[in-house]
Amino acid sequence: MEIIDVADKENVLRFVVDSNEDTLFSLLRSYLESNSQVDIVGVYREHHLINKTEFFLKVKKGSAKELFVKELEKIKKDLQSKKIK
């Protein structure tokens, strides 16, 4: 999977990957949805035959990118300790 487009503003993170990845983004979305700092989190796929998936995150305040990285670390720890939600 390769990132083909990134938009990183203060409270918004948007990136597009060259894959029809549902599993990873569903896991990310489930963790982020439970975070009170998150305003919007979503995944968009144009069509199942087009290898592009867009991930979008908007936070109420602070850096969307920092929150994204923080949640990735939390997922990594949960997977390593097998405490999967």
Short description:
The chain is an alpha+beta fold and 85 residues long. Helices cover 33% and strands 32% of the residues.
Q: State the helical fraction.
A: 25-40%
The largest beta-sheet arranges its strands as 1-2-4-3
Oligomer: single chain
What integer is the average pLDDT?
85
Strand residue percentage:
25-35%
Overall description:
The protein has 85 residues and is α+β, with helices and mostly antiparallel strands. The protein has a single domain (3-80), classed as Gyrase A, domain 2 (2-Layer Sandwich). 33% of the residues lie in helices and 32% in strands. It is built from 2 helices and 4 strands. It has helices at 23-33, 64-80, and strands at 3-8, 12-17, 38-45, 53-59. It has a 4-stranded antiparallel sheet, with helices on one face. Helix 1 packs across helix 2. It is globular and about 35 Å long. It starts with a strand and ends in a 5-residue tail after the last helix. The relative contact order is 0.22. The model has no long low-confidence stretch (mean pLDDT 85).
Give the arrangement of secondary structure elements.
Layout lengths: L2 E6 L3 E6 L5 H11 L4 E8 L7 E7 L4 H17 L5
Antiparallel strand pairs: 1-2, 2-4, 3-4
List keywords for this structure.
single chain, 85 residues, alpha+beta, Gyrase A, domain 2, four-stranded antiparallel β-sheet, 2 helices, 4 strands, globular
